[in-house]
Design goal:
two-stranded antiparallel sheet; single chain; 5 strands; mainly alpha
Protein backbone atom coordinates (compact mmCIF):
# COMPACT_ATOMS: atom_id res chain seq x y z
CA UNK A 1 0.00 0.00 0.00
CA UNK A 2 2.95 2.32 0.55
CA UNK A 3 4.08 1.61 -3.00
CA UNK A 4 0.62 2.28 -4.42
CA UNK A 5 0.32 5.47 -2.35
CA UNK A 6 3.64 6.89 -3.53
CA UNK A 7 3.71 5.71 -7.15
CA UNK A 8 0.05 5.66 -8.16
CA UNK A 9 -2.15 7.74 -5.87
CA UNK A 10 0.14 10.79 -5.51
CA UNK A 11 0.95 10.74 -9.23
CA UNK A 12 -2.76 10.59 -10.09
CA UNK A 13 -3.40 13.66 -7.92
CA UNK A 14 -0.88 15.59 -10.06
CA UNK A 15 1.08 16.79 -7.05
CA UNK A 16 4.38 18.51 -7.73
CA UNK A 17 7.55 16.38 -7.71
CA UNK A 18 8.73 18.23 -4.60
CA UNK A 19 5.53 17.40 -2.71
CA UNK A 20 5.80 13.74 -3.66
CA UNK A 21 9.43 13.70 -2.53
CA UNK A 22 8.40 15.25 0.79
CA UNK A 23 5.79 12.52 1.37
CA UNK A 24 8.32 9.81 0.58
CA UNK A 25 10.87 11.46 2.86
CA UNK A 26 8.30 11.69 5.67
CA UNK A 27 7.44 7.98 5.48
CA UNK A 28 11.13 7.11 5.45
CA UNK A 29 11.75 9.26 8.53
CA UNK A 30 9.06 7.39 10.42
CA UNK A 31 10.49 4.08 9.21
CA UNK A 32 13.95 5.03 10.49
CA UNK A 33 12.48 6.13 13.81
CA UNK A 34 10.66 2.81 14.30
CA UNK A 35 13.81 0.90 13.35
CA UNK A 36 16.32 2.87 15.44
CA UNK A 37 14.26 3.91 18.45
CA UNK A 38 11.39 1.41 18.70
CA UNK A 39 13.48 -1.50 17.38
CA UNK A 40 10.87 -2.44 14.77
CA UNK A 41 12.57 -3.49 11.50
CA UNK A 42 10.79 -2.66 8.27
CA UNK A 43 10.04 -6.28 7.42
CA UNK A 44 8.15 -6.60 10.72
CA UNK A 45 6.22 -3.36 10.26
CA UNK A 46 2.43 -3.63 10.46
CA UNK A 47 -0.47 -1.20 10.60
CA UNK A 48 -0.57 -1.69 14.38
CA UNK A 49 2.74 0.19 14.50
CA UNK A 50 1.04 3.20 12.91
CA UNK A 51 -0.68 4.00 16.20
CA UNK A 52 -1.25 7.29 17.99
CA UNK A 53 1.45 6.71 20.63
CA UNK A 54 4.18 5.81 18.15
CA UNK A 55 3.35 8.75 15.92
CA UNK A 56 3.07 11.18 18.85
CA UNK A 57 6.40 9.92 20.25
CA UNK A 58 7.92 10.36 16.79
CA UNK A 59 6.70 13.96 16.54
CA UNK A 60 8.13 14.73 19.99
CA UNK A 61 11.40 13.00 19.11
CA UNK A 62 11.83 15.04 15.93
CA UNK A 63 10.97 18.33 17.57
CA UNK A 64 12.71 17.98 20.94
CA UNK A 65 15.72 15.79 20.28
CA UNK A 66 16.68 16.71 16.74
CA UNK A 67 15.64 20.35 16.74
CA UNK A 68 13.68 19.88 13.52
CA UNK A 69 11.73 22.98 12.51
CA UNK A 70 8.01 22.84 13.34
CA UNK A 71 7.06 23.22 9.66
CA UNK A 72 9.17 20.18 8.74
CA UNK A 73 7.76 18.09 11.60
CA UNK A 74 4.21 19.02 10.60
CA UNK A 75 4.93 18.19 6.96
CA UNK A 76 6.11 14.72 8.03
CA UNK A 77 3.02 14.26 10.19
CA UNK A 78 0.85 15.27 7.24
CA UNK A 79 2.55 12.61 5.10
CA UNK A 80 1.72 9.90 7.66
CA UNK A 81 -1.90 11.05 7.95
CA UNK A 82 -2.27 11.26 4.18
CA UNK A 83 -0.98 7.70 3.77
CA UNK A 84 -3.31 6.30 6.45
CA UNK A 85 -6.24 8.26 5.02
CA UNK A 86 -5.52 6.69 1.63
CA UNK A 87 -5.42 3.23 3.22
CA UNK A 88 -8.71 3.83 5.03
CA UNK A 89 -10.41 4.92 1.83
CA UNK A 90 -9.30 1.74 0.09
CA UNK A 91 -10.00 -0.68 2.95
CA UNK A 92 -12.59 0.19 5.59
CA UNK A 93 -10.83 -2.12 8.05
CA UNK A 94 -7.85 0.26 8.00
CA UNK A 95 -9.92 3.39 8.72
CA UNK A 96 -9.34 2.90 12.47
CA UNK A 97 -5.60 3.57 12.08
CA UNK A 98 -6.22 6.87 10.30
CA UNK A 99 -8.76 7.98 12.91
CA UNK A 100 -6.32 7.06 15.69
CA UNK A 101 -3.38 9.00 14.21
CA UNK A 102 -5.59 11.87 13.06
CA UNK A 103 -5.84 12.90 16.73
CA UNK A 104 -2.10 13.65 16.91
CA UNK A 105 -1.74 17.41 16.93
CA UNK A 106 0.67 19.42 14.86
CA UNK A 107 3.59 21.18 16.50
CA UNK A 108 2.78 24.79 17.26
CA UNK A 109 4.70 27.20 15.08
CA UNK A 110 5.99 30.59 16.22
CA UNK A 111 3.33 33.26 15.93
CA UNK A 112 5.71 35.75 14.37
CA UNK A 113 6.55 34.86 10.79
CA UNK A 114 9.36 36.56 8.90
CA UNK A 115 8.86 36.33 5.16
CA UNK A 116 12.03 36.81 3.17
CA UNK A 117 11.30 39.26 0.39
CA UNK A 118 12.92 42.04 -1.59
CA UNK A 119 12.22 45.70 -1.01
CA UNK A 120 11.09 47.94 -3.85
CA UNK A 121 14.61 49.32 -4.25
CA UNK A 122 16.12 45.84 -4.25
CA UNK A 123 13.67 44.75 -6.95
CA UNK A 124 14.71 47.73 -9.08
CA UNK A 125 18.35 46.74 -8.60
CA UNK A 126 17.66 43.14 -9.61
CA UNK A 127 15.74 44.16 -12.73
CA UNK A 128 18.59 46.44 -13.82
CA UNK A 129 21.20 43.65 -13.88
CA UNK A 130 20.32 41.44 -16.90
CA UNK A 131 22.06 42.74 -20.03
CA UNK A 132 19.22 43.66 -22.37
CA UNK A 133 21.66 43.93 -25.27
CA UNK A 134 21.97 40.13 -25.32
CA UNK A 135 19.36 37.48 -26.06
CA UNK A 136 20.11 35.61 -22.81
CA UNK A 137 19.85 38.83 -20.81
CA UNK A 138 16.45 39.64 -22.30
CA UNK A 139 15.24 36.13 -21.50
CA UNK A 140 16.51 36.38 -17.91
CA UNK A 141 14.80 39.73 -17.43
CA UNK A 142 11.51 38.26 -18.66
CA UNK A 143 11.82 35.34 -16.21
CA UNK A 144 12.38 37.68 -13.26
CA UNK A 145 9.53 39.98 -14.30
CA UNK A 146 7.06 37.12 -14.77
CA UNK A 147 8.01 35.40 -11.50
CA UNK A 148 7.35 38.65 -9.64
CA UNK A 149 4.44 40.18 -11.53
CA UNK A 150 2.46 36.93 -11.74
CA UNK A 151 3.52 35.69 -8.28
CA UNK A 152 4.48 32.31 -9.72
CA UNK A 153 5.96 29.29 -8.04
CA UNK A 154 9.03 28.10 -9.94
CA UNK A 155 7.30 24.96 -11.25
CA UNK A 156 4.28 27.01 -12.33
CA UNK A 157 6.61 29.13 -14.47
CA UNK A 158 8.32 26.13 -16.03
CA UNK A 159 5.00 24.42 -16.80
CA UNK A 160 3.73 27.39 -18.82
CA UNK A 161 3.40 27.02 -22.56
CA UNK A 162 3.03 29.83 -25.09
CA UNK A 163 -0.70 29.12 -25.30
CA UNK A 164 -1.08 29.91 -21.60
CA UNK A 165 -0.42 33.60 -22.30
CA UNK A 166 -3.83 34.92 -23.32
CA UNK A 167 -4.41 38.39 -24.77
CA UNK A 168 -7.81 39.74 -23.78
CA UNK A 169 -8.64 43.19 -25.12
CA UNK A 170 -5.89 45.55 -24.01
CA UNK A 171 -4.40 43.24 -21.40
CA UNK A 172 -2.82 39.82 -20.93
CA UNK A 173 -3.69 37.08 -18.50
CA UNK A 174 -1.71 33.97 -17.66
CA UNK A 175 -3.35 30.58 -17.29
CA UNK A 176 -1.47 29.05 -14.36
CA UNK A 177 -1.71 25.42 -13.29
CA UNK A 178 -0.90 25.34 -9.58
CA UNK A 179 -0.69 22.72 -6.85
CA UNK A 180 -3.08 19.83 -7.21
CA UNK A 181 -3.70 20.70 -10.85
CA UNK A 182 -5.82 23.73 -9.90
CA UNK A 183 -6.05 26.46 -12.52
CA UNK A 184 -6.07 30.20 -11.90
CA UNK A 185 -5.83 33.20 -14.21
CA UNK A 186 -3.39 35.99 -13.37
CA UNK A 187 -3.72 39.41 -15.06
CA UNK A 188 -0.69 41.22 -16.46
CA UNK A 189 -1.10 44.96 -16.82
CA UNK A 190 0.82 48.13 -17.61
CA UNK A 191 4.49 48.04 -18.71
CA UNK A 192 4.65 44.26 -18.22
CA UNK A 193 2.59 43.81 -21.39
CA UNK A 194 5.38 45.32 -23.46
CA UNK A 195 7.90 42.81 -22.07
CA UNK A 196 5.50 39.95 -22.80
CA UNK A 197 4.98 41.04 -26.41
CA UNK A 198 8.71 41.54 -26.96
CA UNK A 199 9.63 38.19 -25.45
CA UNK A 200 7.04 36.20 -27.41
CA UNK A 201 7.96 38.04 -30.61
CA UNK A 202 11.65 37.20 -30.17
CA UNK A 203 11.53 33.71 -28.65
CA UNK A 204 8.29 32.33 -30.12
CA UNK A 205 7.95 33.86 -33.55
CA UNK A 206 6.81 30.46 -34.94
CA UNK A 207 3.59 30.74 -32.94
CA UNK A 208 3.65 27.19 -31.53
CA UNK A 209 1.14 27.35 -28.65
CA UNK A 210 2.41 24.09 -27.14
CA UNK A 211 6.06 25.12 -26.91
CA UNK A 212 7.40 25.74 -23.35
CA UNK A 213 7.24 29.47 -22.63
CA UNK A 214 10.65 29.42 -20.95
CA UNK A 215 13.09 27.02 -22.55
CA UNK A 216 16.66 26.07 -23.24
CA UNK A 217 17.90 24.57 -26.50
CA UNK A 218 19.11 20.94 -26.58
CA UNK A 219 20.01 19.23 -29.84
CA UNK A 220 18.66 22.22 -31.73
CA UNK A 221 15.23 21.80 -30.09
CA UNK A 222 13.56 24.01 -27.46
CA UNK A 223 13.24 22.06 -24.18
CA UNK A 224 11.48 23.01 -20.96
CA UNK A 225 13.97 24.72 -18.67
CA UNK A 226 14.85 22.96 -15.41
CA UNK A 227 14.57 24.43 -11.93
CA UNK A 228 18.35 24.36 -11.53
CA UNK A 229 18.78 26.64 -14.54
CA UNK A 230 16.40 29.21 -13.04
CA UNK A 231 18.12 29.04 -9.64
CA UNK A 232 21.47 29.54 -11.35
CA UNK A 233 20.29 32.67 -13.17
CA UNK A 234 18.70 34.20 -10.06
CA UNK A 235 21.76 33.55 -7.89
CA UNK A 236 24.05 34.95 -10.57
CA UNK A 237 22.29 38.30 -10.37
CA UNK A 238 21.83 38.25 -6.59
CA UNK A 239 25.58 37.77 -6.08
CA UNK A 240 26.24 40.67 -8.42
CA UNK A 241 23.77 42.85 -6.49
CA UNK A 242 25.28 41.81 -3.15
CA UNK A 243 28.70 43.01 -4.29
CA UNK A 244 27.42 46.58 -4.49
CA UNK A 245 24.81 46.39 -1.69
CA UNK A 246 25.59 44.15 1.29
CA UNK A 247 21.91 44.23 2.37
CA UNK A 248 20.92 42.43 -0.83
CA UNK A 249 20.70 38.63 -0.21
CA UNK A 250 23.63 36.68 -1.64
CA UNK A 251 21.19 34.01 -2.75
CA UNK A 252 17.58 34.43 -3.82
CA UNK A 253 14.98 31.98 -5.08
CA UNK A 254 11.77 32.18 -7.07
CA UNK A 255 9.61 32.03 -3.94
CA UNK A 256 11.30 35.18 -2.65
CA UNK A 257 9.98 37.04 -5.70
CA UNK A 258 6.54 35.52 -5.10
CA UNK A 259 6.71 36.67 -1.46
CA UNK A 260 7.80 40.10 -2.64
CA UNK A 261 4.65 40.42 -4.75
CA UNK A 262 2.51 39.24 -1.82
CA UNK A 263 4.12 41.81 0.47
CA UNK A 264 3.77 44.56 -2.13
CA UNK A 265 0.06 43.82 -2.61
CA UNK A 266 -0.56 43.75 1.14
CA UNK A 267 1.21 47.07 1.71
CA UNK A 268 -0.93 48.65 -1.00
CA UNK A 269 -4.05 47.66 0.92
CA UNK A 270 -5.25 44.85 -1.35
CA UNK A 271 -7.51 42.50 0.68
CA UNK A 272 -5.92 39.25 1.85
CA UNK A 273 -8.67 37.25 0.08
CA UNK A 274 -7.67 38.83 -3.26
CA UNK A 275 -4.00 38.07 -2.62
CA UNK A 276 -4.96 34.47 -1.78
CA UNK A 277 -6.69 34.04 -5.15
CA UNK A 278 -3.87 35.79 -7.01
CA UNK A 279 -1.20 33.53 -5.51
CA UNK A 280 -3.32 30.38 -5.66
CA UNK A 281 -3.37 29.62 -1.94
CA UNK A 282 -5.97 27.11 -0.74
CA UNK A 283 -6.57 28.91 2.55
CA UNK A 284 -6.48 32.57 3.51
CA UNK A 285 -4.52 31.45 6.59
CA UNK A 286 -1.54 30.78 4.33
CA UNK A 287 -1.80 34.23 2.77
CA UNK A 288 -2.00 35.93 6.16
CA UNK A 289 1.77 35.51 6.55
CA UNK A 290 2.13 38.73 4.55
CA UNK A 291 0.08 40.65 7.10
CA UNK A 292 2.20 39.20 9.91
CA UNK A 293 5.37 39.96 8.00
CA UNK A 294 4.34 43.57 7.56
CA UNK A 295 4.09 43.91 11.34
CA UNK A 296 7.49 42.24 11.62
CA UNK A 297 8.97 44.79 9.23
CA UNK A 298 7.63 47.54 11.47
CA UNK A 299 9.16 45.92 14.53
CA UNK A 300 12.56 45.57 12.82
CA UNK A 301 12.41 49.19 11.64
CA UNK A 302 11.70 50.41 15.16
CA UNK A 303 14.50 48.27 16.56
CA UNK A 304 16.87 49.66 13.96
CA UNK A 305 16.60 52.79 15.84
CA UNK A 306 18.81 50.94 17.79
CA UNK A 307 1.84 -6.71 9.69
CA UNK A 308 1.94 -10.46 9.49
CA UNK A 309 -0.07 -11.99 6.55
CA UNK A 310 -3.25 -13.94 7.53
CA UNK A 311 -6.17 -13.37 9.91
CA UNK A 312 -5.88 -13.74 13.66
CA UNK A 313 -6.89 -17.24 14.71
CA UNK A 314 -6.57 -18.67 11.23
CA UNK A 315 -4.64 -21.90 11.48
CA UNK A 316 -3.88 -22.02 7.75
CA UNK A 317 -0.10 -22.01 7.31
CA UNK A 318 1.13 -18.52 6.49
CA UNK A 319 2.79 -18.13 3.09
CA UNK A 320 6.52 -17.71 3.06
CA UNK A 321 7.56 -14.07 3.01
CA UNK A 322 9.67 -13.40 -0.05
CA UNK A 323 11.17 -10.35 1.66
CA UNK A 324 12.34 -12.24 4.74
CA UNK A 325 15.77 -10.82 5.68
CA UNK A 326 15.77 -8.79 2.45
CA UNK A 327 14.96 -5.28 3.61
CA UNK A 328 16.42 -3.54 0.56
CA UNK A 329 14.18 -5.65 -1.70
CA UNK A 330 11.15 -4.72 0.41
CA UNK A 331 12.04 -1.01 0.34
CA UNK A 332 12.30 -1.08 -3.46
CA UNK A 333 8.94 -2.86 -3.67
CA UNK A 334 7.26 -0.17 -1.57
CA UNK A 335 8.89 2.74 -3.38
CA UNK A 336 10.81 3.95 -0.31
CA UNK A 337 14.27 3.05 -1.60
Amino acid sequence: MIGEFLDVYLAHRQLSPNTRKAYKKGLNKFRHYLRDIKRIPFEKLSFEDFNRKNVADFVTYCHDNHGTKPATVNQTLSALKAFLHYCGENDIALEQYYLDVKAVRKVKQPKEVIVKHLSEEQLKTLLSLPDQKTRVGRRDLFIIILLFEAGLRIQELLDLSVGDILEVGNSFKVKVTGKGGKTRYVPLLGPVMGYVRSYIGEFHSEGDANRPLVYTVHNCRPTKMGQGAVWYRLNKYSKKAHETDFTFPERIHAHMLRHSMGMSMNKKGIPISYIRDFLGHVSVDTTSIYAHADCEDLRVALESLENDIGEVGNETPKPKKLWKDREEYLLRLSGLA
